[in-house]
Amino acid sequence: MYLDTDEMGDLKPDLMEGDQSDVEPDLLPEYCRYRDEGCDLFDSCLNCPLPQCIYDQPRGRQQWQKRLRNREIYRLFIDEGKEVEELALIFDTSRRTIQRALKKCLSESFAGEGEGDAKDKTG
Question: What percentage of the chain's residues is helix, strand, coil (to nearest 5)?
């Protein structure tokens, strides 16, 4: 069974005309009301320090929190001399997770700085 397009031909212009008259004009942002409620991380979307909303990326919030945790692990390890076992207790993770976080932070510091600078920090 197939649909005869000749029967639909008369209805098609009517549908298009009706759609055009019901559509509101696209207003400029200045003329639209926008409630900037932010999210659970930041109070305002317009003043958010992130270049892209973390909710636009798959698992964006989780990755963002993980990066913050890893930076804090790295800071405590380098600046305060905490041991891997102690960091695992503080962050309630395994020793292996702490080691992965440190390795990732060290590789990022290699990319951001000269290799000699990063080697001096690790010993």
Answer: 65, 0, 35
